[in-house]
């Protein structure tokens, strides 16, 4: 074997190993849960997988606040769509969608993970110009109780629109009822 070819082959192996190592280290959070319908979706349920490779920065938060303050919901959706994905949310039989913004917040019993992303619109929504097109975000919150895992819970808002209430506070307007997140399994490596 030619020395140059051998060196190139070794370099390729090293690059591949570094790429695999950096991917393994980059994964910050993986959460599995069961989404249960409420009200009109009662009796329906499905698995949800949330993978967060990195959490959003304070600069990301400020960019979203500024976008919403200057242009409301539509500007917020546009800003989210331009953000580099920080993870993925998926349900069975789908590749899922990229999560644009995710944060973790310490709580007395553990932490909360909040996320929001722009929601891809289905073809029938676009073709039929349904009212659901206006609710083009997906958001959620998972409360991870590290003292008693059975008390971990969350909520998934599949179709939301952000607005201000009469007191000037940000609120989620829902197109349909939220889904309750139960049976939460947090696969975060210890020490993270």
Task: Please explain how this structure is put together.
The structure is a single chain. This protein has one domain (26-186). β1 (29-36) and β2 (45-52) form a beta hairpin. Residues 1-26 have low confidence and may be disordered. With 192 residues, it is of the alpha+beta class. The chain has 3 helices and 10 strands. Strands 1, 2, 3, 4, 5, 6, 7, 8, 9 and 10 form a 10-stranded antiparallel beta sheet that branches. It is globular. It has helices at 3-26, 58-82, 123-128, and strands spanning 29-36, 45-52, 87-90, 97-99, 101-107, 110-118, 137-145, 153-164, 170-174, 179-186.
Give descriptors for this structure.
alpha+beta; disordered N terminus
Quick structural gist:
By secondary structure, the chain is α+β, with helices and mostly antiparallel strands. The chain has helices at 3-26, 58-82, 123-128, and strands at 29-36, 45-52, 87-90, 97-99, 101-107, 110-118, 137-145, 153-164, 170-174, 179-186.
């Amino acid at each position: 074997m030619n020395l140059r070819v051998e060196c190139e082959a070794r370099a390729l192996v090293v690059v591949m190993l570094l790429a695999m190592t950096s991917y393994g280290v980059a994964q910050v959070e993986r959460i599995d849960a069961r989404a249960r319908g409420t009200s009109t979706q009662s009796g329906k349920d499905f698995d949800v997988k949330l993978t967060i490779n990195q959490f959003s920065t304070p600069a990301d938060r400020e960019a979203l606040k500024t976008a919403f303050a200057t242009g409301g919901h539509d500007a917020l959706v546009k800003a989210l769509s331009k953000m580099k994905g920080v993870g993925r949310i998926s349900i069975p039989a789908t590749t899922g969608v990229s999560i644009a913004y995710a944060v973790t917040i310490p709580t007395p019993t553990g932490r909360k993970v909040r996320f929001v992303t722009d929601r891809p619109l289905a073809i029938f929504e676009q073709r039929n110009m349904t009212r659901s097109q206006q609710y083009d975000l997906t958001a959620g919150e998972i409360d991870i109780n590290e003292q008693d895992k059975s008390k971990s819970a969350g909520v998934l808002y599949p179709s939301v629109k952000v607005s201000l209430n009469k007191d000037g506070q940000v609120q989620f307007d829902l197109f349909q009822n939220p889904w309750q997140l139960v049976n939460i399994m947090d696969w975060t490596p210890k020490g993270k």
